[in-house]
Amino acid sequence: MSETGYHIPVLLNESISGLAIRPDGVYADLTYGGGGHSREIIKHLTTGRLIGFDQDPAVLGRLIADDRFYFVQQNYRYLANYLHFLEIDRVDGILADLGISSEHIDNPERGFSFRHDAPLDMRMSPGISESAAGLINRADEKELARIFREFGEVEQSGRIAWRITQARQAAPIGTTGQLAECIKPLLPGNRENKILAQIFQALRIAVNHEIESLRIMLSQTAGLLAAGGRLVVISYHSLEDRLVKNYIRSGTPEGGVETDLFGVAHVPFKAVNRKVIVPDEQELTVNPRARSARLRIAERTEYQVNV
Question: What is the reported pLDDT for 112?
Fold first, then answer.
């Protein structure tokens, strides 16, 4: 499948510009996916190197064949471990496109979308032990409500969680269609698809431990970027974007500024774009799925952090 057919890279020009690529620099693409961003980074390198990360084995058939490229089939939470393994002390830029790819959504067998009736899976890696079906049938009402509320910002999270726990008593919920049919009676017709999308998003985030992994990854970047290096992150929902914004402003995903013994604040980044960057109408015409994308760019300051 062609690159365009598989995945249209979101905010490509803006994110590549934000990296301020040096031809001899070392860069990390933490979400390789269809390889669109990585292929563009490689074009700007001469003697530089690019390290790609992705936990999904589906990307293995789409890897760049280039001596300057090295691929790591792992979640980006292990960024520091693998850079140390490769004897890379500092990198000049880190890019993370946090969204799921079109392949995830369009492939019914992956179970990411309510638009297809398929096994309720949602795992981005076979190394993840529990599927969405496992979570839906195991978690109690309180835990399900918390997942829908925190990760999907679902207004009726309690009622929907109750409905699921009642329905699964008759038979386990094993497919995307069964889950959607179970909760549809609680959804207003004019907002049905939106709420279903929020619920499926929440389950996906929970199954893949996305927020935990994002916190771990962000906390490593300050210690891995060289002074003047760039952190470029594209997020797709408010929970992700809030963590990224907090990290750039304060140096911690939670937003608390760290100080030394004298009370002096040490912030390892300065924001390059004060206002979040979003896709323009031209890009949205070509790729409507980019509508919720939010791009933030930060530059590493001289303040030293060890990882």
Answer: 74
